[in-house]
Every structure is written in structure tokens, then in C-alpha cells.
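Q: Sequence in, structure out?
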Amino acid sequence: MMETKVMTQIMSAKEGIITDEMKIVAKNEGVEPEFVREGVKNGSIVILKNNQRKNSIPVGVGAGLCVKINANIGTSNEKSSLNEELQKVKIIEETGADVLMDLSTGAGIDDVRAQIIASTKLPIGTVPMYQAGKEALDEFKNIAKLSKEKLFSDIEKQCKDGVDFITVHCGVTKFVVEQLEKQKRVTGIVSRGGAMLACWIKATGLENPLYEYYDELLDIVKKYDVVLSLGDGLRPGCGADAGDRAQVAETIVLGELVKRAKEQGVQAMVEGPGHVPLNLIPSMIQTIKQLTDNAPLYVLGPLVTDIAPGYDHITSAIGGTLAALNGADFLCYVTPAEHLGLPDANQVREGIMASKIAAHAADVARGNKKAIEMDKKMSIARVSLDWEGQKEMALDKEIFKDKNFTEEKPCTMCGDYCSMKIFRQYF
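A: Exactly. Output:
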């Protein structure tokens, strides 16, 4: 029997085909389907949609689309309640995050992933190195014992399970690790996947298998139309390390890998920093976009200061707005628990809301018609003292829950509400 040829989104786009997924993304974004097709074709847009998941919502990330946000969840050895993580999935959906990632490292990773995938229609990402590395450490107590076969087997398993994108730290090469060693960072490596691979390279003396066997990796994800999220294993973990030699060296490698992925019909986006002082964000984001051929850019933060534990969702939102204004397309949320511990359900919600504000502020500044219209509708509802209209437009609709807002209620607030009541008496 002849094997059916898999047509990925990028392969279809190159042949002039507008797929159903492109049509859905275009409708949700308020743009023309041809705009989405052209973006997918040139690699400036990716569509998160594993071809094995039949009930998931395709989400577009990239140039000309709304800035997207991701929320991380996952079990750990210290805290492995599946029920708690499934509750977080509900919160993620209710608060309007676009995507979620399962970063589980606790017991029963395969079962946890399966249940999370079954619980939501949102696109889901994973970091296969987490599972492969954890299981190698559990078995051998030594990351150097992790085999290329085990790592690639876990990648294929997760793609087959239905994940829509995977973070792979292909850019942590022997050369890049040498640059890291030469310069002596303040915070070293803060990426878990990056640290695992750097230690593996150091211990074995071998090249990163994700880089050495990159063509095999492309063959795997291509079958499922899984998007490669090329991880920033050497992202800066503090402002002092931002833009250093190791970070730039890795980014140059990622640019090469983006090009190779597109040539093979595989969608790819790039991950970025990290901790970055506010003044460095514009040039850093623009440089990364240039080096990676305008691939969609997925950033953690960036966090603009290092001294705000408990409030890093705010430092992240400040940096995320500026990063998105300068070309970042996808913000990974940061919760108040960043640098302190695993977030609870309320902290997940706070992190999402902070990221949503950052993304929307950037969308307005970038001239996104949908975002601008939302702000205008909110303004009209405010001047009309239309509380239901305000609730409809508000990023956080829970603010209006159980509150009896009416025009006749005794005034218990100042500012816009009082001023508009006065204004309406004369104009």
C-alpha cells in the first residue's frame, strides 16, 4: 500500500492552498485568509494544530496577528496533583489564554499529558527533553546516560499523542557551550532543557543530538505538522547577562535551523529572553527577528528587573509590552510565584491577566484593528454608563461578578464615573 503524503500547513501554503486551519485563523484574527497563507508560506506565521487532534482550535502566531499568550502548568516531584493541574486548565480557558504548555516532571508524565490534552481544545506545547532527561536521571542518576534514541522516541511519542508544538533546544551546541564557558555568566543557565543538554555535552564530549540529527527531528514533527519552538537554552537569567556572547551565538544557530525547517516543510518559531533591561529590549527583539528571518518570536517576559520576587508578573508585563511592540509575537506568562515556587491556581490567573494586558497594549500600539475597536467599544460603554457593555469588553470579566452596577446606585467611586454623570447633564 502506498503511503499517503502528509501536507503540512507550510507545504500547502507554498502550493497556494488555503487550508481550513488558515480560514479559521483568518476569521478569528479579522484578516483575509490569503494574508494568513502568505505568512505561513514565508514563515512569518505559524499555525499551532497537530493533525492528530481533531477537536482543537487552530491558533495563529506571527506577524500581523494579535499577540498571543501562553500559560505553563505541570506536575513535579514536589507537587504532583493532576487534579490541581486540570483545575488550572479550566482557569486558563476561563481567563482567555491562547495556548498552554504541559511542563510536567512528576510521576506518570504520559498519563498527565494525555489527560491534559483530553481536557481542552487549546493548543498544547511540551518540552520533550524534560521527560527524557527526568527518566534518564531516575534510571541512571546521570544525565550523560540519556541516549539519542530515548530523546527522539519521547519526541515522537509526544507528537503522536497530539501536542501542537514542542520546545527543542537545538541551538545549545558544543560551540555555543564553549562561548558560555569563556565568559562566566552571573546566573549561568536558567533554562532546564538548556542546562540538561549543556551538561550532557560537557560530560560526553559529543554534539547536541537535536542539532546533529536535526533532519531526523524534522522528519518526526513533519508527520504530525507539529510546530518546532526552537528553545533559547541560553536565555539570560538576569539583566547583567542580557545580550551576551552565548545568547547571540545560540540565536545565530537558531536562524540557521529556522531556514532548514522551512525548506523541509516544517513550521518553526523561535524562543527569546528572558531577563532584559528595558532599554535593551527594542534592539534585542529586532536583532533576533532579523537573525531568524522574521520567524514568530516567543518570549518569556522579558523581565525588566531582578529585584521583584512576588511581583514578577508585573515586571514581565512591562517587558512583554515593549517586546511585542518591537516585534515579539507570543508572550509566555510569568506568575507572582516566578523565582519563588510553583504557582497555585490564583497565581496562574494573575499571571495570565498581566500577560493579557501586556499583549493587548502592544496590539493597540501596533495598530491592530481588532484591539483598537475593543478599546473604543469599552469607551463608548463607559460614557453611556453601560455596565454590561463594559463587562463584555473587559479583559477580566470576573471584576464585574456579583456587583450590582447601575446608573442610579449611590456613587461610591470617583474619577470617570462621577465626571461622566456631570458631563451628561450639559452635553
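Residues 374 and 405 are 21 Å apart (CA to CA).
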